[in-house]
Design goal:
Layout: H1 3-17, E1 22-31, E2 36-41, E3 51-56, E4 60-62, E5 65-67, E6 76-81, H2 87-92, E7 108-113, E8 130-133, E9 140-143, E10 148-152, E11 156-157, E12 160-161, H3 162-176, H4 201-210
Antiparallel strand pairs: 1-2, 1-6, 2-3, 4-5, 6-7, 8-9, 9-10, 11-12
Length: about 210
């Protein structure tokens, strides 16, 4: 191989080494308010693992609704490097890139999590349904084409759970329930629903005689 050919080959390899398309990373820190993360990539460069700072995090956003992921330190994620510079895009929404930087680490975006085999997901439910819950399985929400099912855990509304709200509502209905006595009726006096009925000796005598 000639010296010129070797030189060209080294130049091409150097250019290829500076092209990044996608990589697996680990969350080092996460800003849930600004949806930015510091991500440590899982490969070594010159003896150390590169860390990319202030990486935008993908959300599920559409039609005025958004789902924000609650990443934490140590979560394994997939990172992609975009073809264009996304600096202005994420800052002010500009669709035009001022610099033609392609596939560089500064154009990284976290697009989702990766579940390693060492971290099992104990979530029951149908494999054909969407499931939302904790990895421990103590809260699982299942969504299919016909229904939404809470398989485990409870749902809080305001300051209470669904169960406590049902109990409070039932108690209020019982305590506020009254009977209207028609005019001229021979019905006896009304009593407080919270008070126990009065049992007399005559009631006991009549019950014994009837038996």
């Amino acid at each position: 191989m000639s010296q010129q050919t070797e030189h060209m080959r080294n130049l091409i390899e150097a250019e290829i080494d500076d092209i990044y398309t996608a990589s697996v990373g680990v969350i080092e820190s996460y800003d849930s308010d600004n949806l930015r993360a510091d991500v440590r990539l899982t490969w070594s460069e010159d003896g150390f693992d590169p860390i990319i700072s202030d990486v935008p995090v993908r959300t599920m956003r559409a039609g005025g609704l958004v789902i924000v992921p609650p990443y934490s330190r140590g979560d394994m994620v997939m990172v992609v490097m975009t073809r264009e510079d996304i600096g202005r895009l994420v800052q002010d929404g500009s669709s035009r890139s001022p610099r033609p930087e392609k596939y560089v680490l500064s154009n990284a975006v976290v697009i989702g999590g990766i579940n390693p085999n060492t971290q099992s997901v104990n979530m029951e439910g149908s494999p054909s349904a969407w499931r939302l819950g904790t990895t421990e399985g103590n809260l699982v929400l299942e969504i299919d084409s016909n229904s939404v099912i809470i398989l485990s855990g409870d749902v809080e509304i305001g300051q209470g759970t669904v169960e406590s709200l049902i109990q409070e509502t039932a108690s209020e209905l019982l305590n506020s329930h009254t009977h209207t006595v028609p005019s001229g009726s021979s019905a006896g006096p009304t009593t407080d629903p919270n008070e126990s009925p009065l049992v007399t000796d005559n009631d006991i005598t009549e019950d014994v005689s009837a038996s």
